[in-house]
Amino acid sequence: MKALTFPTLTPDLQLKTEKLESIFQEIGSVLVAFSGGIDSTLVLKLAFKTLGHQAIAVVAMSPTFPQEELQDVQKISHEIGAKLITANTNQLEIESFVRNDASRCYHCKTDLYQLFDPIKQETGIATVVDGTNIDDLGDDRPGIQAARDHGVRSPLVEAGFTKSDVRSLAQHLGLSNWDKPAAACLSSRIPRGLVITELNLRRVEKAEAILKQEGFRQVRVRDHEGIARMEVGREEIEHFFDSARRQRITQSLKGLGFRWVTLDLDGYQIGGGN
């Protein structure tokens, strides 16, 4: 299949795009670990563009996956035209995950990649790919090790894509979520060492929905044993100067069971719950 060519792409990004296509051509068929985020969306888009229906999206539904993200997953896979398979699991039944130590993400991703085994049998597709990019490698992500242990490939890393590259190409491809804020598993809102429960997962999910309804885009609410520590984009912190908004948010989060509601003045940080 002819390589994608965009006159406005930099030569470097054009070469990376061609490399990404060649990786998919070499693999031949893929199951894409799909979250609806921009990284896995770009992987699915290029895989489908290259391989057609030999590229299938797989989303894992569990208590740690925000319900609002499911709508994005369905919408984006439909826009791309790729088949979407939903697999169900429950990490709250895994003791090593629930205790929430430094290896939590490893156990979560191990559970995820084990879900692919019957899907591989059903589809006849042996290779699983994820949306890890080069910038992810600098963060503390035990889940990347789980991916390697299960033979999952990261084509964005193999092709040399940074997060900036991902967004640039996604915008050129017209992907509707090209500027979507970074998302993460809800368990990342529970600081390490605190037990993960259905209660605190649903509480932070609802709290973040409240902030988004108030107009915030980049949002995390960390649950420190009933203390809500809100992180928003640094450029959004000034919105808390509106006393009416601040009061609505405080009352709403206390209504969810938080005893205190606080704002982290450092703003949103990747890995802020670690």
Envelope shape: globular
Q: Major sheet: order of its strands?
A: 3-2-1-4
Number of helices: 11
Query: Cα-atom Rg, whole angstroms?
Result: 19 Å
Q: Could you tell me the mean pLDDT?
A: 92
Domain count: the total is 2
Number of strands: 7
Could you name the CATH topology of the largest domain? Rossmann fold
Strand-pairing-aware structural class? alpha/beta
Structure commentary:
With 274 residues, this protein is an alpha/beta fold. It has two domains: 11-172, 3-Layer(aba) Sandwich (Rossmann fold); 186-263. The protein has helices at residues 11-27, 38-51, 67-80, 95-98, 104-114, 116-123, 142-149, 155-158, 163-172, 198-213, 243-255, and strands at residues 30-33, 55-61, 84-88, 128-129, 219-224, 227-232, 260-263. A four-stranded parallel beta sheet has the order 3-2-1-4. Strand 6, helix 11 (243-255) and strand 7 form a beta-alpha-beta unit. The radius of gyration is 19 Å and the shape is globular. The N and C termini lie far apart (43 Å).
Brief sketch in words of this structure:
Helix content is about 45%, strand content about 10%. It has helices spanning about 10-25, 40-50, 65-80, 95-100, 105-115, 115-125, 140-150, 155-160, 165-170, 200-215, 245-255; strands spanning about 30-35, 55-60, 85-90, 130, 220-225, 225-230, 260-265. It is globular, with a radius of gyration of 19 Å.
